[in-house]
């Protein structure tokens, strides 16, 4: 593994590992988790990488191997050492970065690949939601050995499951069935079904500043914003990517700023309130860019990872100017 600072971009090269997801720690500034897979996730094993930043670049703090590809990762919201990953074998893994080996626990109920996992930000509850290619979403409490309930309704693979940062017990999911769905844990049922694209929807995210605003990113290369009070039409559409959008994230610092990464190898930054919404296009990967996150601690810092075996942390010009 080699780390290279340069041009303001800190890069860690991870030979033989193709990055699927990158998530900044909500606790430790500069700490990053990356879920990666061998052989583009089609075969082979997976690795959870824990990275730290220092003056010379990126340093590998710890890595954990799993016997199938890892597709997503989420940090615990109540323990700075704990995270959950999900895998191609249908399982979720609970890891502790304070220990050299792991996992602490494995949750195996999904019958196909688990593509998405997210830890609830609601204080006082430890809830994790997972989305699978078996067309179900499952709800977990990591202190309980089995799932609390299963949500059915999607008619194709589920790519993304994200908790609302505003409404306890509420989460969104997006699917190959071309819908965005909003669910309520208390009723274990779907609240809203949005036929959001005429294409598979690979990603969705909640606005941090507006409890009614969710964004979707799809194989049709478009990003669409949805006001959940009236989902007849999107409130914005962002065009510019030339291949499928793999992941989208709202900014934690700016109400109308979001970032997206794509199979076109780029990361793009947008301000959907502007007539000309595209702020910046970052082209520093040479393969599908799958993982993306915006730091909760630094208003300018972004992390991404791609199938070119690199993980990068950088400060895009547009965010530096906003700060």
From TrEMBL:
Molecular function terms from GO: enzyme binding; peroxisome matrix targeting signal-2 binding; protein homodimerization activity
User: Superkingdom of the source?
Assistant: Eukaryota
> Where would I find the WD repeats?
107-150, 151-187, 194-230, 238-280
Q: Name one GO cellular component term.
A: cytosol
What sections of the protein cross the membrane? none
Q: Name one GO biological process term.
A: ether lipid biosynthetic process
Q: Which PROSITE patterns match?
A: WD_REPEATS_1, WD_REPEATS_2, WD_REPEATS_REGION
* UniProt subcellular location: Cytoplasm, Cytosol; Peroxisome matrix
Q: Per its UniProt record, what SUPFAM superfamilies does this chain match?
A: WD40 repeat-like
Q: Could you tell me the keywords of this UniProt record?
A: Cytoplasm, Peroxisome, Protein transport, Repeat, Transport, WD repeat
User: Which is one Pfam family of this protein?
Assistant: WD40
InterPro entries (alphabetical): PEX7, WD40/YVTN_repeat-like_dom_sf, WD40_PAC1, WD40_repeat_CS, WD40_repeat_dom_sf, WD40_rpt
Q: Would you identify the family this protein belongs to, as annotated?
A: Belongs to the WD repeat peroxin-7 family.
Q: Subunit composition?
A: Interacts with PEX5; interaction only takes place when PEX7 is associated with cargo proteins. Interacts with VWA8.
Q: What this chain does, per the record?
A: Receptor required for the peroxisomal import of proteins containing a C-terminal PTS2-type peroxisomal targeting signal. Specifically binds to cargo proteins containing a PTS2 peroxisomal targeting signal in the cytosol. Cargo protein-binding triggers interaction with PEX5 and formation of a ternary complex composed of PEX5 and PEX7 along with PTS2-containing cargo proteins, which is tranlocated into peroxisomes by passing through the PEX13-PEX14 docking complex.
- This chain belongs to the protein called Peroxisomal targeting signal 2 receptor
State the taxonomy lineage.
Eukaryota, Metazoa, Chordata, Craniata, Vertebrata
Q: Gene name on record? A: PEX7
């Amino acid at each position: 593994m080699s780390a290279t600072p340069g041009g303001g971009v800190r890069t860690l090269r991870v030979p033989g590992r193709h990055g699927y997801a990158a998530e900044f720690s909500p606790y430790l500034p500069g700490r990053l988790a990356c879920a990666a897979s061998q052989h583009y996730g089609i075969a082979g094993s997976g690795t959870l990488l824990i990275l730290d930043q220092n003056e010379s670049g990126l340093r590998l703090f710890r890595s954990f191997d799993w016997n199938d590809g890892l597709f997503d990762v989420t940090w615990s919201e109540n323990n700075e050492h704990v995270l959950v990953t999900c895998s191609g074998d249908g399982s979720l893994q609970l890891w502790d970065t304070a220990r050299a080996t792991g996992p602490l626990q494995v949750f195996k109920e999904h019958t196909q690949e688990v593509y998405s996992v997210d830890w609830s930000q609601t204080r006082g509850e430890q809830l994790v939601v997972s989305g699978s290619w078996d067309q179900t979403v499952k709800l977990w409490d990591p202190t309980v050995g089995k799932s609390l309930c299963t949500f059915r309704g999607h008619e194709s693979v589920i790519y993304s499951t994200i908790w609302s940062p505003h409404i306890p017990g509420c989460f969104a999911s997006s699917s190959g069935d071309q819908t965005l769905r909003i669910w309520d844990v208390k009723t274990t049922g779907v609240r809203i079904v949005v036929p959001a694209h005429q294409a598979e929807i690979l990603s969705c995210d909640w606005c941090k500043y507006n409890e009614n605003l969710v964004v979707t990113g799809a194989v049709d290369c478009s990003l669409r914003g949805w006001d959940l009070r009236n989902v007849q039409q999107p409130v914005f559409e962002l065009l510019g990517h030339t291949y499928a959008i793999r992941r989208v994230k709202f900014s934690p610092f700016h109400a109308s700023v979001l970032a997206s990464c794509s199979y076109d190898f780029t990361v793009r930054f947008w301000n959907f309130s502007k007539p000309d919404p595209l702020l910046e296009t970052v082209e520093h990967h040479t393969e599908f860019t799958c993982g993306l996150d915006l730091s909760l601690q630094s208003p300018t810092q972004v992390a991404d990872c791609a199938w070119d075996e690199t993980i990068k942390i950088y400060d895009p010009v547009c965010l530096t100017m906003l700060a």
